[in-house]
Design a protein that fits this description.
The chain is an alpha/beta fold. The protein folds into two domains: 135 residues, 3-Layer(aba) Sandwich (Rossmann fold); 160 residues, 3-Layer(aba) Sandwich (Rossmann fold). 37% of the residues lie in helices and 15% in strands. It is built from twelve helices and ten strands. The strands form two sheets. The protein has a five-stranded parallel sheet with strand order 1-5-4-2-3. Strands 8-7-6-9-10 form a five-stranded parallel sheet. Helix 2 links the parallel strand 2 and strand 3. The longest helix has 20 residues. The radius of gyration is 19 Å and the shape is globular. 47% of the residues are buried. The model has no long low-confidence stretch (mean pLDDT 96).
């Protein structure tokens, strides 16, 4: 039976706990010995492609990369027919797509024959969230994700798909999450990855002040102000989000031992300064390291006996 990892919200606490556990296992195993994983990328990525291909290789498998130019989801060929084609050769497809609905369409077209991993969509970025949880757990509690309960995490800037998956994952572990963003860039309720829908666990707080959001935080997280597909809004976003740039002055309002996270790529001088990104408090390169850990965890979970 195929498994799907397309949002944090739609993954049970039990399965998430198992993914975190499996992600911390040894680098080399034979889970995917001789098996292929299709990597479908409608959008470009350095870290996601590197993490996915290296994780599969370390587990004894191989990847085949399909770019948007080669496949053309819903332009050259329908998403359903792409899925039907890939399902004849691959048991797992990991995809980075523009529209989240593609996952449901492929699953329906293939009668759930092929497992699916969301490597980023307009709704969620669950593998990044797993990597972020692993990074924070490594730094604060020796790798034990349960130890993140009551940790205070502030996200500052444009609240995106990354914010949503991160917040859902942390809230379910009992961490408190504050999102600092101006009007028009803040989290709104609804959708398939909704931090507002998390019941129990940590507390979600929204703030229109960067200073208020990071006050006392153990970790400060930011992301690019201009996500893929919004390039024409660059000038306006720089104006709207200028007060939410992560600087040394802003970090000084957080906990004295606070750490900095950024999922990259960073636009130095926009959402973050060099001084902060390159500081000893920065965990961004451990996040990159754990992108591979996250993929190992998800892939091992998918191949476990059901």
């Amino acid at each position: 039976m195929s498994r799907f990892f397309t949002t944090i919200e739609q993954t049970s606490d039990e399965d998430l706990a198992r993914i975190y556990e499996l992600a911390r296992g040894p680098f080399d195993d034979t889970t995917l010995s001789g098996q292929g994983v299709a990597l479908v990328f409608e959008r470009p990525s350095l870290r996601t492609r590197a993490a996915s291909s290296s994780a599969v290789s370390e587990m004894g498998g191989f990847t085949t990369f399909f770019s948007d130019e080669e496949i053309g989801l819903d332009t050259r060929e329908s998403a359903e027919d792409v899925g039907r084609t890939l399902a004849q050769t691959y048991a797992i497809c990991a995809a980075r797509v523009r529209h989240h609905e593609v996952f449901a369409r492929i699953a329906a077209a293939t009668r759930e024959q092929m497992s699916l991993i969301n490597l980023l969509s307009d709704v969620a970025h669950p593998t990044q969230a797993v990597a972020d949880v692993l990074t924070l757990a490594e730094h604060f509690c020796g790798g034990d994700v349960a130890g993140l309960a009551q940790l205070k995490v502030a996200y500052v800037g444009d609240a995106t798909n990354v914010t949503r998956s991160l917040a859902v994952a942390l809230l379910r572990l009992g961490a408190d999450v504050t999102v600092g963003a101006p009007d028009g860039y803040q989290l709104t309720p609804g959708g398939l990855e909704d931090p507002h829908a998390v019941r129990g666990g940590g507390t979600l707080r929204l703030s229109d002040s960067a200073q208020g959001a990071v006050a006392g935080a153990h970790a400060v997280y930011t992301d690019a102000w201009v996500s893929m597909g919004f390039e024409e809004e660059t000038a306006q976003r720089r104006v709207d989000l200028a007060a939410f740039r992560v600087t040394s002055e802003l970090m000084a309002r957080a906990n004295p031992s606070a750490v900095l996270l950024h999922c990259l790529p960073a636009h130095r001088g926009d959402e973050i300064t060099d001084e902060v990104l390159d500081s000893p408090a920065s965990l961004v390169w451990r996040q990159v390291f754990h992108r591979r850990s996250a993929m190992r965890g998800v892939l091992r979970w998918m191949k476990e006996e059901k």
